[in-house]
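quick one
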Amino acid sequence: MSEGAPKKDEKPRKFQAIRGTRDLLPPETALWNRVERTAHEVFGTFGFGEIRPPIFEPTELFARAVGGETDIVSKEMYTFSNPTSLAAMVPEGRTEGTLAEMLPEAEMISLRPEATASVCRAYIEHNMQQLPQPVKLYYMGPMFRRERPQKGRYRQFYQIGAEVLGGSDAPAIDAEVIEMVMTFFDRLELQGVQLDINSIGHSADNCRRGYVEKLKAALENVKDKLGPDSQRRIETNPLRVLDSKLESEQGSIATLPHIADHLCEACATHYSAVKHQLEMRGVIYRENWRLVRGLDYYMRTTFEITAQGLGSQNAVCGGGRYDGLVELLGGPPTKGIGFAIGEDRLILSLQESGKAPAQQGRDVYIAWMGERAHATAIRAAKDLRKAGFSVELPPVEQKFGKALGQADKLGAKYALILGDNEVSEGLWTLKTLADGSQEKYTEADLLDRLRKGKALSS
Ligand code: AMP
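structure w/ adenosine monophosphate:
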């Protein structure tokens, strides 16, 4: 018996998905697939290509890119050690080393909490600066953050994101990236979409640094009225105080200085050009001076998109410009802008607004009886599937009454009835389950009939 097997009289443990993770199941996965297919299509029309980076990377990559002071890096990453060479670490004369013996030399790695850092790492690693610029990439897949689970917030969640790297920082690029997300949401008929934009200035030009100083001073004046989280952030990350949703803090926050009044000339010009470019594209936006985003790498343009039906976790997309990031990771000076869409929330919102497709039933349930009919049923199933129909072929013979009941339960549109009579006559019976009507067809006519039925219903 293997070690993990339960002892006699001991009930085997009932396993459940880990808190904050979940199984995505049919029919919901059909909606996930539709969303992802639409992303491939829409992003492709904007000239983006797909990148699939690994799911874990050196912890240091995220610490450097996302920022050591952020919640994501300081509290939420799943981090473990990755002994680079097991054999090299086993002391002489021993065949195995304990984990503690290996740890000092092991590299720390983390499950990715986001993918922008990975995309920038890949841009550098594959010398993509030598490709025609800018390089436009998109990705989709799971991310991992140890957050407190609630509706719309998971520990394994999914993002669909895109990045534009290299080339210029022309405001038209910012606007086109935003236009692309809005086009994607529009194609999905996402409801109650609201785009908020802001500029958070440029740290190298000092306009953000200057603003942060003023903000800190203003925050010190209202410190007593703030909760412990915001009080701590005055020192660690004062911009994040503007993110606060605490009702009791809203009055104080309203009195704080606005960054728009402190942007340097270059940032102010860039910001107004982005707005103009959005208007040229017919993209409706709202300016939100409190939109700062939680990640360290953002500069100038930031944006966030909310949708309906999501309660407090209503942001479905966040993004912004990050011109210094590639360089910070050891690459050449490179402009960058991108976004990440929370796919779980996008799906939730589509479901809440009834935009999710209804459960997809089978097209045809084949009710067969008798050995000869079974052989015909197998051939019919093969041909119908080849023609693109979804077919259920029961593995064992059933009485027709039971088979029709089963076809109903599965939401089949038609039952194809194949008994000895049908097979010897060469005329197959097709029953339309919605109205119970029944007709006979030759094998060739049947396919035509089903094709016409499909064309009518789609
Ligand atoms: P961020 O990478 O933090 O800028 O987040 C981008 C988007 O990812 C957010 O607007 C959310 O839609 C989504 N998101 C972030 N964290 C989670 C989470 N823990 N669970 C579900 N979605 C998330």
